[in-house]
Structure formats: structure tokens, C-alpha cells
From TrEMBL, chain A:
Keyword Transmembrane: yes
Pfam families the UniProt entry points to: COX3
Name by which UniProt lists this protein: Probable cytochrome c oxidase subunit 3
Domain (Heme-copper oxidase subunit III family profile): residue spans on this chain: 30-203
Source species: Mycolicibacterium vanbaalenii (strain DSM 7251 / JCM 13017 / BCRC 16820 / KCTC 9966 / NRRL B-24157 / PYR-1) (Mycobacterium vanbaalenii)
Alphabetized UniProt keyword annotations: Membrane, Transmembrane, Transmembrane helix
Automatic annotation (TrEMBL), chain B:
Organism the protein comes from: Mycolicibacterium vanbaalenii (strain DSM 7251 / JCM 13017 / BCRC 16820 / KCTC 9966 / NRRL B-24157 / PYR-1) (Mycobacterium vanbaalenii)
Transmembrane region(s): 29-52, 72-94, 106-133, 153-175, 187-206, 218-236
Record's protein name: Integral membrane protein
Superkingdom per UniProt: Bacteria
This protein's UniProt keywords: Membrane, Transmembrane, Transmembrane helix
Length: 203, 268
């Protein structure tokens, strides 16, 4: 999404803030190392999940039917909307509209913060209904994977907070830092889309 | 670490061999103890006692009794308890470099105390459980089965103790402005400490991918941990090598004229 936003900025002929032309890697290189590695690690976990699912397809399907798909779907919309505002905010920051960028990032932070809250409304009824990690292999995978993703979301909210801080207090905000935060947030989004498809939707 | 020994050696600098006058001798001794320590670990855990890879939590009673009462296990536990003191040197080697970073001292104290608590639960507890099982023949099989569970739960279920420690290490690398260790290593450390969290399901599952010998809890964590440990080690090597002599804590004992031009460094 950041890439698209960059394309738009370049398309309307506005000069980049750092004065360089042509394609470049948005954000810091080390963040891309993290993103690619994180996707590989989650990829391995997803493959393991599919392998064990293949061994007990009925158990996994029956357990999956007990998840709250509605909250899952709303959370997907929350993350996607949040990512949209992050992309718009990055685009605004690149074209020097810092006040707009702050506003857009705060909205993104709001949508992002709704995710853990909704997750709480999902976990608590499940646990009180006796669906705990000890119930069966599906629920163990479900709690571990969504829990790991939730850690990523919480870290992402902290990162977005630092991006807002950078934009607000720094007289000359570092665009690469804003891009780094945006890159991380989009990765959290992508991971959720795969998780949602594998754990809630797949038949 | 060894500054005082180094200090004691320096007055005789004029007559002692050149390697003893090396200003980083203390760090290099600590550094080269690390591979020795890990090699010893590997030999004792795998071919000597077959403690690792972990045995299944669903092992039958005869299997557990056979494992717990073997002589090799007793020898392994004795060697590990003897070499336990090498673990602090390993961590000292890392902490010396963390100390150079432009971050709060809280980070290095967290690493020191985290390593201490982690090593007690994760190394001493299992060594005593396995060693005790092998100490005397004729223990009841149910008692041996319980010691077996205790040993492995302490060994693998305690990885969470290291989580905050490595989190402090990773954050220190990411926040450091002196670039002592590369930033990507900080991110790699983030994965490393997140996989330590996988130790929690070990307390719930007794079979399958989340048991203590499972794919998710043990094998994936190992696949990340082993290369990470080697990479950290190589990065520490570079950090010690690149450390300017004037920055050493024993710098005042090094002949002033041999000091290179100073460069400004941020401090905590």
C-alpha cells in the first residue's frame, strides 16, 4: 500500500522531500529484513497448522465453527481501514502536509486500537464457554497464533504512537521513519488476512 | 570481568610476552570460552545422555526408568553442574558490549538478572532432577516419571524466563545510537524472544505439536535459536574487534602514546 501511495505521489508530479528521484525502498532496510523474516516464520507456522489440520479435518472444522466469525470480520475491516489511513498519512507526510499526516495517523491508531478491544470480546466468551488452549489441537493453534499476532498488533500501536510523536514534535520529520512504521503496520495487516482466512473461513 | 587480573599483569608489561600485553586480553579469553562451553553442552546433551532432542512426554514407564537410571545421565549431570560457572562468562562477554551502547543501564541489569534466573530454573533444576533420578538404583518408577516431567518442564517450560532478557538485548540493539551491534540483529532477537513464548503451551499439551518435544514448541524454536546464537557470537566478535582501545574500561593502564585518535561516542 505504501508503494501505491508513493506511486500516486510521484504521479502527480510532486517532488520527494529528500530530493532523490526514481524508485527506492520505502523505510529502513532493516525493517524489510524483519518483515520478510517474520512472514517466513509465520509461513512455517501456517504450513504446520495445515499439516495438523489435514490429519484431523473433522475435528478442526467442528472447532472452527465455534469461533465468532462476526467479530473476526469486523476486526478485518478495522485493520484494513487502519492500513488505508496509514497509507494516506504516509502520502501526506511525503508531500509535506504534516498536520494532515498527524490527523490521518491518529485515525489509523484509533481503528488499530479497536482490534485488541474486539479481540477481548472474542476471547472472554470463548474461554468462559470452556474453549481453552487445552480443549484440542485446533484451539491451541488458534490461541497461540492469534496471540502472537495480537503481540504484533500491540507493538504496532506503539510504533504508530512513535510515528505520531515524530510528526508532531520534530520540526523536520524523518520520512523514512514514517515509512518504516507504515511498512510494519501493513505487515500486521497481511498476517491477519491469512490468519482470518485459515482459522475462520477455510472449509 | 577480568580487569583486575589484567591490571596485575600490566606492571610486568615490559618483560611479559606480547600476547599478555594485549589490551583486550580479558575480553578475548571470555570470548573463546563461549565456543568451548557450547561444544561441551552439545556433547553432553546429545551423544552422551540423549537428553536432547527431548524425549516424548508420552514415553512408557520402562523407557523413562531406562533413561533416568543410566550411568551416562549421571555423568552428564555431574559435568554440567561442574561447568555451570562458564555460563556467566558467556553472558559477561555479551554484557561488556551492551554496556557500550547508548541505552539506559536498566537494559544490561535486566540481561544480567534475566540470565541468572533463567539459568537457575532452566539448567540447575533439570540437572538436579535428572541427576537425582540416576543417583540411586531402585527408585519407584512413578517417582522417576515425576522427576522426568519435572526435569523437562524446567528445561523447556522455563524458556519464558529468557524472554524478557532477550527482549532487553534486542531493544538495546535497536535503540543504541553507537551502532555497537547491527540493527538487523535487534530484529532477529525480536523473533528469538517471541519464540521463547512458545514455552507456555508446553505446560498444557502432553502430545502433538505443542508438547515439549513438539514441532511448534521445540523444533521451530531451535531452528531460529541455533543460527541466532552463532550470529550473535560472530557479531560480538566484530564488536570486540572494532572497539577502540581508549574505550576499554582498563584504558588507563594502556600506554597513553599507543592510543588512537578519539572519536565522540554517545553515553547512557
Amino acid at each position: 500500500m505504501t508503494e501505491v501511495a508513493q506511486g500516486q505521489t510521484a504521479g502527480i508530479g510532486e517532488p520527494r522531500r529528500d530530493g532523490r528521484t526514481g524508485r527506492h525502498l520505502p523505510g529502513e532496510g532493516s525493517m524489510w529484513f524483519f518483515v520478510i523474516g517474520d512472514l517466513v516464520i509465520f509461513g512455517a507456522y501456517f504450513v504446520a497448522y495445515m499439516f495438523y489440520r489435514g490429519q484431523h479435518p473433522d475435528l478442526f472444522l467442528q472447532s472452527q465453527a465455534r469461533l465468532n466469525q462476526d467479530i473476526g470480520a469486523v476486526n478485518t475491516v478495522m485493520l484494513l481501514t487502519s492500513s488505508l489511513f496509514v497509507a494516506l498519512g504516509t502520502s501526506a507526510a511525503r508531500s509535506g502536509k504534516v498536520a494532515d499526516a498527524v490527523r490521518l495517523f491518529v485515525i489509523a491508531l484509533g481503528f488499530g486500537a479497536a482490534f485488541p478491544l474486539l479481540k477481548l470480546f472474542e476471547y472472554v466468551p470463548e474461554v468462559t464457554a470452556g474453549l481453552t488452549p487445552g480443549t484440542n489441537a485446533f484451539f491451541m493453534f488458534y490461541y497461540v497464533m492469534t496471540g502472537l499476532h495480537l503481540c504484533h498488533v500491540l507493538l504496532g500501536l506503539v510504533v504508530l504512537g512513535f510515528v505520531v510523536r515524530e510528526l508532531r514534535i520534530s520540526p523536520n520529520p524523518r520520512i523514512s521513519f514514517v515509512e518504516t512504521g507504515a511498512t510494519y503496520w501493513h505487515m500486521v495487516d497481511v498476517l491477519w488476512l491469512i490468519l482470518f482466512a485459515l482459522f475462520y473461513l477455510m472449509r | 570481568m577480568n580487569e583486575r587480573v589484567e591490571v596485575a599483569d600490566n606492571p610486568a608489561a615490559g618483560t611479559s610476552p606480547s600476547w599478555r600485553r594485549h589490551p583486550k586480553l580479558d575480553q578475548w579469553i571470555a570470548f573463546w570460552i563461549v565456543p568451548g562451553f557450547f561444544t561441551l553442552f552439545g556433547i553432553v546433551f546429545v551423544p552422551l545422555s540423549f537428553m536432547m532432542p527431548p524425549r516424548s512426554p508420552g514415553s512408557s514407564t520402562p523407557e523413562i526408568v531406562g533413561f533416568m537410571q543410566s550411568h551416562n545421565l549421571l555423568i552428564a549431570c555431574a559435568i554440567l553442574t561442574l561447568s555451570f560457572g562458564l555460563a556467566p562468562i558467556t553472558n559477561a562477554c555479551y554484557v561488556m558490549q551492551v554496556k557500550r551502547m547508548s541505552v539506559s543501564p536498566v537494559f544490561r541489569y535486566t540481561i544480567i538478572v534475566g540470565a541468572t534466573t533463567g539459568a537457575i530454573v532452566g539448567m540447575l533444576f533439570p540437572m538436579f532432577c535428572f541427576g537425582l533420578g540416576a543417583f540411586r538404583t531402585g527408585y519407584d518408577p512413578p517417582i522417576l516419571a515425576m522427576l522426568f516431567d519435572f526435569g523437562y518442564l524446567a528445561y523447556i517450560g522455563s524458556l519464558g524466563c529468557f524472554c524478557i532478557m532477550w527482549m532487553a538485548f534486542g531493544l538495546a540493539i535497536l535503540l543504541d545510537r553507537n551502532n555497537i551491534l547491527p540493527k538487523w540483529l535487534g530484529y532477529y532477537t525480536v523473533w528469538q524472544y517471541l519464540t521463547e513464548l512458545m514455552a507456555a503451551p508446553v505446560w498444557i499439551a502432553t502430545s502433538g505439536p505443542f508438547a515439549w518435544d513438539g514441532l511448534m514448541t521445540f523444533w521451530f524454536a531451535m531452528a531460529l535459536y541455533v543460527p541466532w546464537q552463532i550470529i550473535v557470537y560472530l557479531c560480538i566478535y566484530r564488536a570486540i574487534k572494532n572497539q577502540p582501545v581508549h574505550e576499554l574500561e582498563n584504558a588507563q593502564f594502556v600506554v597513553a602514546s599507543s592510543l588512537p585518535a578519539t572519536r565522540p561516542t554517545a553515553h547512557a
